[in-house]
Amino acid sequence: MTCGPSRRNEKGMTHASSPSARPLRVTRAQAPLSGSIRVPGDKSISHRALMFASLARGETHITGLLEGEDVLRTAAAMRALGADVTQNAPGDWRVSGLGIGKLREPSDVLDMGNSGTAARLLSGILASHGMVSVMTGDASLRRRPMKRVMDPLAGTGATFMAREGGRLPMAIAGLAEPRPLDYRLPVASAQVKSAVLLAGLNAQGQTRVEEPVATRDHTENMLRHFGAHVKVEETPQGGRVIVLQGRPDLVARDVVVPGDPSSAAFPIVAALLVPGADIVISTVGLNPLRTGLFITLQEMGAQLEVTNVRTEGGELVGDLHVRASSLKGVTVPADRAPSMIDEYPILAVAAAYASGVSRFCGVEELRVKESDRLAATVALLENNGVKTAVEGDDLVVYGTDNAIPGGGVVQTHMDHRLAMSASVLGLVAQNPVEIDDTAFIDTSFPGYLQLMNSLGAGFAL
Ligand code: S3P
């Protein structure tokens, strides 16, 4: 069970708790989960739809938009920058864009809440407009590294001033005539790639980004959808080179947002673990750069069938049929990490319930998510009687063969995915699990507890 060479690392974080916490005590599921659901829209695609539509000429109609806190922050920011962003009905939005380079200086600080994606992507837009802006976020986001975008974006000629260690709040003096960038990503990050490409929209000439491992390509796909010229080439080492032609004429186009595979992950794992469960999740995004979890679960022995695969709004989608399964341990290679980077906490819960040992290789990026997810996932499992180890940048989980003791208190550290992972663990643990705060679930999956209850989870609300 070895992983091969590991990649570079960044500093971990400390934590704080929410002022209006919503604790939850989860007891073992009393009946099999069953039924058919849809999960909310994809978070990555939703942020991009609002941003790109604001930079396009004309009116874009978005359906299936995720109305989680993170995306609502992006909507508010684009409004503050002069775009007309309105909700017609739940999930149904209209955006009147201003065109590339035409956004207006915001009159107040842009608060991106809990959202790293909103903050990083927006940095690329702000650096490439001739205006001064200030960005902040909640306690979690203010601890996360922004240097990873500040460093490449400084190459445009924009000036950044941030707190110690490149943390928010941050002031940006952008340029109306930014220089185009040629950048090789030191970490596999779709957010950094997207920030560079967004800055390239308003730069004369070609912007070039090279990524060592392919990361989610929603930015490239959606830029093309809006009319930009984007060329993508695979490198012999399994990476990609993306070349964007600057100053394209972005024109409004309708966007259909698929269900978020990262949100589907929670009901999927719950259904795999709760005895007798049998559920269907319809219209889930199946972009191949997002489906690492599904492949991994299938390797573990999951009865996870993908049916009715089709293309909707330019993205591959399908329906997932999930049945309770007997899972065995798995080794996840490091180069699969970008395609499932948000799914490790819930995969760790599946590995804890499985038989045998699992190793997740090269997961150092987990240290700089909404929480230090490596430390927080270890604590989630250990506090509930599951043995783990961190070996270098690998996480090792010792499966309990369907016997997670539970009985622990889980600290979620303002991290939605930790809270949802803990809730699934509680559904199959032998003793009740106390979650300190479920409020942050609303950042990516509003209505999660209710939707799970519609399948029979029995969360006490
Ligand atoms: C995202 C990229 C990933 C992911 C995040 C969404 C995006 O972050 O964790 O939830 O939409 O581009 P990194 O780029 O930091 O890996």
Can you put this structure into words, describing what you see?
Belongs to the EPSP synthase family. It catalyses: 3-phosphoshikimate + phosphoenolpyruvate = 5-O-(1-carboxyvinyl)-3-phosphoshikimate + phosphate. Residues 29-450 form the Enolpyruvate transferase domain. One of its GO terms (molecular function) is 3-phosphoshikimate 1-carboxyvinyltransferase activity. 3-phosphoshikimate binds at residues 43-44, 48, 189, 191, 342, 369. With 461 residues, this protein is an alpha/beta fold. The chain folds into 2 domains: 24-41 and 258-454, Enolpyruvate transferase domain (UDP-n-acetylglucosamine1-carboxyvinyl-transferase, Chain); 43-245, Alpha-beta prism (UDP-n-acetylglucosamine1-carboxyvinyl-transferase, Chain), CATH 3.65.10.10. Helix content is 27%, strand content 25%. The protein is built from 12 helices and 23 strands. The strands form 6 sheets. Strands 2-15-17-16 form a 4-stranded mixed β-sheet. Strands 4-5-3-14 form a 4-stranded mixed β-sheet, covered by helices on one side. Strand 12 (230-234) and strand 13 (240-245) form a beta hairpin. It is globular and about 60 Å long. The relative contact order is 0.16. Residues 5-18 have low confidence and may be disordered. Shikimate-3-phosphate binds next to helix 5.
